[in-house]
Design a protein that fits this description.
With about 110 residues, the protein is α+β, with helices and mostly antiparallel strands. Helix content is about 65%, strand content about 15%.
Length: about 110
Amino acid sequence: MCEIFAGQDPASYAYVARSVRLAGHATSIRLEAAFWDILDEIAQHQGLTTPRFLSTLYDEVMELRGGIANFSSLLRVACVLHLRRPELMADLAQAALDQAALEAAE
């Protein structure tokens, strides 16, 4: 039963650190490689680079919640939401495209 989990490539769960700028401050985020792959996919669907997506997400959470206790955990859960709710992600991607079209028309 657990063979699919036990037999996965160790590279998929190896930590990978990426440097990003959040709220004007350079920082490093360590996540498992598989989560970075998902975040890259989410960012692409949003029409953003991964660093820009992370910065935007950080800013939106700060505005909404006033703080973030553990941004790495938030990113992992965002990946889970992306995998569990693909229709929601498609709606968000379409909204981002619509917004970009509106801004381009102005």
